[in-house]
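User: Teach me something about this protein's shape.
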Amino acid sequence: MPVVDWLNWSLVIGGIICVIAELALGAVTGFDMALIGGSMTAGGAIGLLAGSEKIGLLAAAGLTVLYFSVLRRWLKKKLTVKDRPTNIDAVVGRTGLVTKRIATLEPGMVKLGDEIWRAELASSDDAARETGTTVKVEAVEGVTLKVR
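Assistant: First, the predicted structure itself:
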């Protein structure tokens, strides 16, 4: 086997191994290893088609540089999961309006956005909250807001 074929086949096989390793590890590198492996594989294939080890190495290097300089930032932005609170987590910390008086051992009602919630005082030491008062949600227990 000529050196040209051996080097290009090494790029192809090495690239495939990188992709398989990335998938086996569960994308722990954020697909960097898989995309570098893809660059190596493509470069090796180009070198095999052109019949030149230099073209294969340059293609692999060029594709890798292209990935790191242009595509990596875009890909990371697309793959980053934005942390958005949902359900109960989205309620804690919000302010609401008392629609029915809240006192110690006397639950009331709070309007939070478009919803009316059952509400209790977060602490038994808190003073009663009269209708029309603004309160802040400290916690949620079941379907009851704990407000302050």
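Now, about its shape. Residues 87-147 form a domain with the OB fold (Dihydrolipoamide Acetyltransferase, E2P) fold (CATH 2.40.50.140). The CA atoms of residues 67 and 74 lie 10 Å apart. If you'd like, I can walk through any region in more detail.
User: That's plenty for now, thanks!
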